[in-house]
Amino acid sequence: AQSVAQPEDQVNVAEGNPLTVKCTYSVSGNPYLFWYVQYPNRGLQFLLKYITGDNLVKGSYGFEAEFNKSQTSFHLKKPSALVSDSALYFCAVRAYSGAGSYQLTFGKGTKLSVIP
Amino acid sequence: DAMVIQNPRYQVTQFGKPVTLSCSQTLNHNVMYWYQQKSSQAPKLLFHYYDKDFNNEADTPDNFQSRRPNTSFCFLDIRSPGLGDAAMYLCATSREAGGYQPQHFGDGTRLSIL
Questions:
Q1: Is some CB atom of chain B closer than 8 A to the CB atom of A102?
Q2: Best of A33, A39, A102 to disrupt the B interface by mutation (most B CBs within 10 Å)?
Q3: Where are the extended beta strands (E) located within A6-84?
């Protein structure tokens, strides 16, 4: 079964410092990987995805993620954190759900707190 | 702006009293999803529609039903809500069901059960 793991429940980082939110995956075949962000009382917002191609993927709001096949990881990064980046971050992988359809399997989420 | 809209944002119902949550989209996407999310946990897929084809997740309780009368609208019906059904319910859309395109989420309906 396709799955992702986010090993950290919470990440704290000082404003202006680089941030990393970790994600590892377990899939059969080629992984389709996604990052979403969720602000309080809001829906999830798409940040970026890896389907194929360059291992470094650039996304919204200055975020990027690095796909590492040997380490089965897809960590989310940003060079300089903003207080407004404080939110809940979900890693997700495409999983087959039958009848020709696919769904997203989400990690448990990582709460990012950026400290002023 | 094209978007996914959920109404109402907050819904209170009584134990056992049927409730309907609604979702509309202006993206003209083929696929619409319903997720249940509890207490900052990962969203859990309940079911999805690809056009008019309904796909139910194996572990979705029978208490949960859905209707999609047209491309733009999708409804989540909870026939007899229990206390354990209190959660945020998220609607999402995607252009196709291949899983390689991002899903677009509404801001959710937070359901409380009295």
A1: yes
A2: A102
A3: 10-14, 19-21, 24-26, 33-38, 44-50, 56-58, 64-68, 73-78
Which residues of B are less than 8 Å from A96 in CB distance? 99
**Both structure tokens of B47:** 């079911």
* A41, A46, A102 ranked by CB distance to B98: nearest: A102
Residue A5 zone, left/alpha/beta (φ > 0; ψ -120 to 50; rest): beta
Q: How many CB pairs (< 8 A) connect A and B? A: 69
In the block, residue with structure tokens 């996914």: B4
Q: Is A92 exposed, middle or buried (0-12, 13-18, 19+ CB in 10 A)?
A: buried
Q: If you count them, how many residues does chain A have?
A: 116
Whole-angstrom distance between the N-terminal and C-terminal Cα of chain B? Answer: 36
Distance from CA of A15 to the nearest CA of B (A): 23
Tell whether A101 lies on the interface with B, counting CB pairs under 8 A. Answer: yes
Distance from CA of A6 to the nearest CA of B (A): 11
| Contact of A41 with A25, CB cutoff 8 Å | no
Q: What is the pLDDT of residues B71-114, one digit of tens each?
A: 999 999 999 999 999 999 999 999 988 888 899 999 999 999 99
pLDDT at residue A58 greater than cutoff 80? yes
Question: Of B3, B7, B5, whose CA–CA distance to B110 is shortest?
Answer: B7
Angle (nearest 5°) at CA B75 between B13 and B88? 50
